[in-house]
Amino acid sequence: MSAPTARPGRRPTIKEVAASAGVSTAAVSQAFNHKGRLSEETRRRILDTAVRLGWSPNAPAAALRSSRTRTLALVVRRPTDVLGADPHFSELITGMEAELAPRGYGLLLHLVAGVHEENAVYERFAAEGRVDGAVLTDARTDDTRPALLARLGLPAVMLGAPDRTGPVPSVGLGHQDAGVTEAVRHLIGLGHRRIAYVAGPAELQHTRLRRAGFESALRAAGLRPFAVLHTDFSQGAAVAATEALVDAADRPTAIVYANDSMAVCGMGTAQRRGLGVPADLSVVGYDNLPLGRWLHPRLTTVDQRVQQVGAAAARLLLARCGEDVAEEVLEGRPRLVARESSGPAPR
Amino acid sequence: MSAPTARPGRRPTIKEVAASAGVSTAAVSQAFNHKGRLSEETRRRILDTAVRLGWSPNAPAAALRSSRTRTLALVVRRPTDVLGADPHFSELITGMEAELAPRGYGLLLHLVAGVHEENAVYERFAAEGRVDGAVLTDARTDDTRPALLARLGLPAVMLGAPDRTGPVPSVGLGHQDAGVTEAVRHLIGLGHRRIAYVAGPAELQHTRLRRAGFESALRAAGLRPFAVLHTDFSQGAAVAATEALVDAADRPTAIVYANDSMAVCGMGTAQRRGLGVPADLSVVGYDNLPLGRWLHPRLTTVDQRVQQVGAAAARLLLARCGEDVAEEVLEGRPRLVARESSGPAPR
């Protein structure tokens, strides 16, 4: 073959260097890393070839791909105030940190506005070798991220219903609708018939799963939802939804919220309207955040073990990044934690 | 000078390569980067020299130091559950992300257990070129971090009382004791005389500042603290402290907490003991977290504008990292936000 020379406008590849020098790509790496058992003559020939082709191994990508960054990424496609507004992500990060911090790993957090921005971040991570792997959140219908990350060769795990079949394994509790189902049965058992649901954004997979669980649990008892209101998870939206519900002519006697933060806002809003919780209105949250235990009344909620899921995702990702970490199998399903904010339906 | 050769056990420096090849260090970089206007002969001599000395430019450190990582670090010396337990850090991160996310920057979060671990993280960041700069939290007496970061050449800003004199500028609201002082005056104005303080860890600078503000505001009115109880900021500690206070023979009529999370726990604990808030006990928090607005009663708190401080710290650090960011001057001081959880002292 003829010896190629540097062509402007196109980065040469290590394969071309290897082919031109008549060695393996590993030998090219060794020549630059000063490793392996290359003769001085071979090493020099490889370096000369690399110089002639304009290939250099010292781009951050090449350099970093060969070494661990001890950094995992968490890219969250939410408004920048999501951490302040929704403690769910704090819990998730707490769970991940429990595995990362003792191993000296850092967590690289990126908040992005949309799908294109999120994909661009992964492209950059891969190109620049910034992270060893990524945890994906908010699984969506027709999610394009697993294919992208597989193509980029970036280890990843997804948070969601457990699934090991795709290129990106999914980590989470099974039966994701089980918590809402149990909450509805709990309320029906307490005599409630007018039960409303303050949900998250309609486009999220878990919103759809839980809404389906909510509706089918009611249907099984011959009931229909009093109302299902979608929100952006913000506290303001939770307050507005609660006001709309409790001001309704034939108001609900119980409201289930898609997260604890919204449930706490809803509880305060109902109390401010003069409604006793749970005497006049039962309130059920979702996430089992620490704060719910200390409120008065203590918050009835669904424990989906966010911290444990975060820890399990981190462990699986660490293992896929080559760390010697035993994989932890997450047992169980979301469970209702019945406390004081739910009680018998008012007569 | 005699031509040195590779010595085992010690990494050669780019300076040694340059000296041995009779060129500048910039020329050495150019030889490997295929940039600049080196003759082929010079380039080859430099590469040969580098090979002989065992120097290679493709260590992540060298590669990354020459390019921006678009990553800022936040190292927090707290237990791994701090994010879940104390929304303060979520607010801080939210404020930083408001500046970082639109610019495509990520935030590298490291939770560390102690001072040695924290310093080791900065050493590693600098050695491996992982971040462009770092935001330091929890300023301490005799803080060794500014000197370390200056030595490492890593841009940094500290969160704390505004101070531009040291190697690491400090960003925050001035008069950090002003919020607690205002809270105490507010309570005294409402007729309270038995006022307790549930503080943070004694070793933190802001704990000492605020405690001093608390005590001197009482002293100015001829009063002494009912009690000052230190905690680790955890919710469990807040509950225990509140129980101890309200079970005291001559219990306080008002409690000031060092953060909102503890205040919410304290409020619930008092209510559970049958005390009305604020009829029997006034409660004042600190941080003005979003949730406090929606509780019933709405939480009286001190607004220290955590998000704005986080944003200002991020902006200053971005500017110090070479980004074209106008510095934002933080105006004002912490301010009391009087809501419903504080009221006239019971007779």
UniProtKB/TrEMBL annotation, chains A, B:
Residues 12-66 form the HTH lacI-type domain. Keywords: DNA-binding, Transcription, Transcription regulation. GO terms for molecular function: DNA-binding transcription factor activity; transcription cis-regulatory region binding. Coiled coil: none annotated. Pfam families: LacI, Peripla_BP_3. InterPro entries: HTH_LacI, LacI/GalR-like_sensor, Lambda_DNA-bd_dom_sf, Peripla_BP_I. Signal peptide: none annotated. PANTHER family: ALANINE RACEMASE, LACI-RELATED TRANSCRIPTIONAL REPRESSOR. This is LacI family transcriptional regulator. It comes from Streptomyces sulfonofaciens.
